[in-house]
Structures are given as C-alpha cells and as structure tokens.
C-alpha cells in the first residue's frame, strides 16, 4: 500500500514537472520569455544540478567537500573538448563530461577519503585548486585565456538533466546504498561496526556527486561562449557550498529551493558583486550561529504535506 | 650559485609562511578550528603597515608594532563575535563560519576601500646587496629573516616561560581540566587569537616590503599555503609550523628554479595531499589513536 502511494506521488511529480517543462517551452517558443529570463532559467537549472550533487556528498554522506568547482571544471573542459575539438554531438559530450568528472572523483576520493572533517575539507579545496592550475598550464585547452565554446545549452537539455539528477539522487538516497550513506553521516564508527563498508560508500557518493557536477559543467560550458580556469576557483566552490548549507544539510528539496532563491538573488545583484559576497557571507555566519541545520534541516518539502504519525520517518538529526 | 640564490629566496618566503602558519597552528591547537579568516588578518596587517608608513610617515619598526597591535585586536574581535557563539557547535558549523568570516573581511574591505592594489614604498628598509662567495644577498632578505626569527623566539618565550603561555598549553591539552584548575578558558583563547593575529600582521608588513604589491585578496593564497605549512609540520605544534613554513618556502623556490614557476601554487597543495595521506600527523606530530 505504501509502495503504491509512494509510486503515485512519484508519477504525480513527474507529470507536474513535465507540464511545467511544456509551459516554459511554449513560452520560449512563442517569444514571451526574453533572453534574460531564459538565461536565468538555465542558471537555475545548472545550479540545481550542482546543489543536488553536492547535497549527495555533504548532506547525505556527511563528507565535507569544498572543491566542487574542481569537478565542475573537469566536466566543463571535458565536454568542451568533445564538442569543439572532436566534434561529437552534445549528448555524448555531456555524458563524457560526467564520466571524466566521476573518474576525477574516484581519483581524489580513494586516497582522501581516509581523511575526516576539516582535513578532508582542506584536501578537497587543494584538489580544486590543483585542477584549476593544471587547466591553466595546458595549452591544448587555451591556458589562462580559456577556450571558445559554441552555445548549445537549451532549455530541454537543462530540464532533462535536472530531472534525471533529481530522480537518481532521490532514489539513491532512499535505497539501501543511500541508507548506508546516511548511517556514515550520523556516526561513521557505528556504521563501520554494523558491517557497512564505509570507504566504499564514501567513494560511491563522491563519484556520483562528481558525475552530476560534470554534467552541470558540460551545460555550464555550452551556456557561455568561453570558459576560463578563473571561472572555477575557490569562490565557485563556495557558491555551490552555500546552496547546500542554506537549504539544509541533508535536504534535497532544501538544496533545490536554495538554488532557485540564490540564483535569482545573484541575478539581481549582478552589478554589485561585492554586495553579493557580503550578503552571502553574512547569511552563512548568521545561519551557523542561529540555525546551523539550514532552512529545511533534513526535512523534505514533501513531508510537509504528509499527515502526522504517518509512514514518514522523520530524521531529527542534522548532518552538521 | 643560482641554486643558493633560490634557496635564500625560499627562506625569505618561507619565513613569511612560517609566521602565518604559527597563528593557524596555535588556534587549531586550542579550539580545533581552521581559522580561514587568518589569511585576511594577514592582509589587514599588510594594509595597516602600508598606511602607517605612507600616511603617518613612520619607519619600519613602529609600523610593524602598530600593525601587530591592530591585528591582535582584530583577531580578538573576530573570535568574540563569530567563533565564541559556536564554541560547542559541530566542527563543520565552525568551519563554514570561518569561511564566511574570511569572505566577509575580504569583500567588506573591498566595499569600503575599493579593490585597487597599493605599492609599498621601496625605501622602508635599506636595499644594499652584498656578495658572499659569489652569491649576491639582498640585505632585505636578511632583515626579514631576522625579524621572523626574533618574533619566533619571543613567541617561544611567551609560550614556555609566562603564565598565559602555561594557560594556553593547559587549555590545548584539556580544556575542561584546565577550567577545573581555575584557568579562564575564554581569556586564554582570546589571548591565543591575539598572539596568532599579531604574528600574521607582522607577516603582512614583511610581505609588503618584500613583494611591494598588496591588494585586498592577497591573503587567500598565502593563507592556504600557510595552512599547508602548519599541516606539514604537524598541526598544533609550534616548532612544526616554523619548520613547515620554511620547508614549504624552499620547496616552492626550488620548483620555480627548476623552471616550473607556473606550477608553483599547485605544488603546495600536492604536498598537502601527500602529507595528509602518508603522514597525517605531520613531521613533528605523534600518531593519536581514535577512542570510541
């Protein structure tokens, strides 16, 4: 019975989102949405994918990673090489971007996941910087001056990628593997002693998160006309981190909401980058002091519509 | 000869890293927090030194002292406002706050003052060159190294011979036990932030004199590298930070000398990842077992 209900909710949300997609597509086709709004919409989509992928690493598995821009950069450059140098179709480029980023996730994940907490944070930060410096020194991708990319990202691509990301991450989280990841977040030692292969699940979470960050990278690269290593510095990682922290460490819908909210705020503050950074950093500090679990905590937005005492299993703990 | 020249450059750079790394390592030792804002305290120190020299027309030593004092107060202020409410929060919450404070200082500073860089006047310290066995040595590098060594000796005396130093060692060993023994833990933590930030301020002035150009985002990279230096020497261990800083400076200079100067910034992080994987306790640290 509960399985049936859950399946019904699943198909309901899929059809709702498809209707949303069709409405926007008609608006774009009819010319009612000017390029500025279209661009904002693309950014929201890309940021949702990034927030969801980092949510899997930080929110679900509890591994504090602040080098997410590194995966984004790997995906962006890999897919740009695919379309621009090897002249592959866009869909192949996106998947290759994701796979190369997942490979990078494995390479950084396997050694550095022996680390915990602050040390892992610093190691991932170092990884992000190393990626940036490597890209800066490779002439094949243009070095510091960057790489020309043609504009291929369109609304159907972004929407499809967002939908796939959210479905995969949501289903992963509620599967056996996802529960194992949550148990690592709550108490790694206890999870270990219950027979969960913690290293395996941490690396899996890293690889999946990196894969989707890579796909976001592909969309990001083909949304601009040029990509440069300086687009993928520490500040980009911070932009992604704040989406997850603001939404609630452990809440997918929170991360998605924060991605929508902050992308809109960023668009309005585009001409005042300092003000934007000041607001962002104040939000982080005040949030950590007064509400460290984020806006949503580990709750999902769907749980608000459920009756109390139902089959929902609320998790009172937070990732932080 | 070229190699020795590069080694001397490396030691000068390394002494700057070492001074910043000391602040990281002391704060980490006492509150287990990576103070991301430390690199920005370094930047503020550099600007305070710059304005003391150009606007107030002071010479090197008074400028250094003013910068150290301002940074000490600034460090205590950061600790009291941002970190103290989080004393009992999770480490991740504290880390996120530290990143927030760091960005707030950087962009608040740009907002107030503008992002344009400044250039230190070149006549603050004498720039004579003298030759020893064919190696030309800049008197500035010698003075900078000397200042760094003097500050480190003063730090050792404070930590090992004074009452506040004893309190600092006690709190970093076991904060609860120290509290039971009548040590004021809050004041001790503030004193640690004050001393660490003063050293960062001194490093800022030295950096400005040595590299001339300063700008509001200059603290990010040296801050991160100084953290690498602190980890390299074993975080929480004061002599470790000194050795780690000097070693990192020399490694970077050698990489530049080998013709890979564009890769210089990556080397620090590769060192970090290698040391975290193979020797997470650092060069001077002892391996601690986790208790369940």
UniProtKB/TrEMBL annotation, chain B:
It is a multi-pass membrane protein. Signal peptide: none annotated. Pfam families: BPD_transp_2 (PF02653). One of its GO terms (cellular component) is plasma membrane. InterPro entries: ABC_transp_permease, BCAA_transport_permease. GO terms for biological process: D-alanine transmembrane transport; L-alanine transport; L-isoleucine import across plasma membrane. The keyword S-adenosyl-L-methionine does not apply. It comes from the Bacteria. The chain crosses the membrane at residues 7-30, 50-78, 90-112, 132-159, 189-212, 224-250, 262-284. It is found in: Cell membrane. One of its GO terms (molecular function) is L-valine transmembrane transporter activity. Keywords: Amino-acid transport, Cell inner membrane, Cell membrane, Membrane, Transmembrane, Transmembrane helix, Transport. The keyword Heme does not apply. Belongs to the binding-protein-dependent transport system permease family. LivHM subfamily. This is Branched-chain amino acid ABC transporter permease.
């Amino acid at each position: 019975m509960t399985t049936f209900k859950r399946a019904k909710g699943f198909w309901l949300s899929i059809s709702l989102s498809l209707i949303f997609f069709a409405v926007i597509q008609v608006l774009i086709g009819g010319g009612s949405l000017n390029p500025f709004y279209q661009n904002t919409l693309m950014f929201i989509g890309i940021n949702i994918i990034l927030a969801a992928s980092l949510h899997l690493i930080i929110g679900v598995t509890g591994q504090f990673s602040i080098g997410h821009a590194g995966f984004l950069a790997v995906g962006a450059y890999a897919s740009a090489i695919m379309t621009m140098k090897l002249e592959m179709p866009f869909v192949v480029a996106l998947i290759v971007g994701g796979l190369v980023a997942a490979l990078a996730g494995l390479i950084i994940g396997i050694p550095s996941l022996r680390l915990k907490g602050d040390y892992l944070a610093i190691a991932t930060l170092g990884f992000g910087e190393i990626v940036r410096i490597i890209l800066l020194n490779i002439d094949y991708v243009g070095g510091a001056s960057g790489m020309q990319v043609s504009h291929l990202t369109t609304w159907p691509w972004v929407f499809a990628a967002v939908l796939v990301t959210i479905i995969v991450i949501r289903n992963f989280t509620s599967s056996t593997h996802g529960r194992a990841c949550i148990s690592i977040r709550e108490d790694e030692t206890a999870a270990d002693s219950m027979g969960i292969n913690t290293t395996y699940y941490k690396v899996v979470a890293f690889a999946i998160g990196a894969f989707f960050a890579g796909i976001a990278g592909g969309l990001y690269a083909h949304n601009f006309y040029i990509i440069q290593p300086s687009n993928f510095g520490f500040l980009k990682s911070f932009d992604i981190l704040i989406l997850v922290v603001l939404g609630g460490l452990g809440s997918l819908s929170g991360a998605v909401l924060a991605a929508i909210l902050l992308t809109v705020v960023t668009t309005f503050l585009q001409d005042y980058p300092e003000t934007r950074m000041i607001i962002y950093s104040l939000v982080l500090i005040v949030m950590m002091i007064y509400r460290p679990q984020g806006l949503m905590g580990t709750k999902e937005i769907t749980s608000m519509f459920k009756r109390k005492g139902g089959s929902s299993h609320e998790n009172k703990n937070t990732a932080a | 000869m070229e190699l020795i020249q590069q080694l001397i450059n490396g030691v000068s750079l390394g002494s700057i890293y070492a001074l910043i790394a000391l602040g990281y390592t002391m704060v980490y030792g006492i509150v287990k927090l990576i103070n991301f804002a430390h690199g920005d305290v370094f930047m503020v120190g550099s600007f305070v030194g710059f304005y003391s020299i150009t606007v107030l027309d002071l010479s090197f030593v008074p400028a250094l002292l003013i910068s150290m004092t301002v940074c000490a107060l600034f460090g205590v202020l950061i600790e009291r406002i941002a970190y103290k409410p989080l004393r009992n929060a999770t480490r991740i919450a504290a880390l996120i706050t530290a990143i927030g404070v760091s960005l707030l200082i950087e962009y608040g500073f740009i907002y107030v003052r503008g992002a344009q860089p400044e250039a230190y006047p070149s006549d603050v310290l004498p720039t004579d060159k003298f030759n020893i066995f064919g190696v030309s040595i800049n008197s500035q590098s010698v003075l900078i190294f000397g200042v760094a060594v003097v500050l480190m000796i003063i730090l050792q005396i404070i930590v090992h011979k004074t009452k506040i130093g004893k309190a600092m060692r006690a709190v970093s060993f076991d904060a609860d036990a120290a509290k039971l023994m009548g040590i004021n833990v809050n004041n001790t933590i503030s004193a640690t932030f004050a001393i660490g930030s003063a050293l960062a301020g001194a490093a800022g002035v030295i950096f400005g004199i040595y590299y001339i150009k300063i700008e509001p985002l200059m603290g990010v990279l040296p801050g991160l590298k100084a953290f690498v230096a602190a980890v390299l020497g074993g975080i929480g261990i004061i002599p470790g930070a000194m050795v780690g800083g000097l070693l990192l400076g020399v490694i970077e200079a050698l990489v530049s000398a080998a013709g890979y100067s564009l890769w210089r910034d990556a080397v620090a992080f590769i060192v970090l990842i290698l040391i975290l994987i193979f020797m997470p306790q650092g060069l001077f640290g002892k391996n601690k077992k986790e208790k369940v």
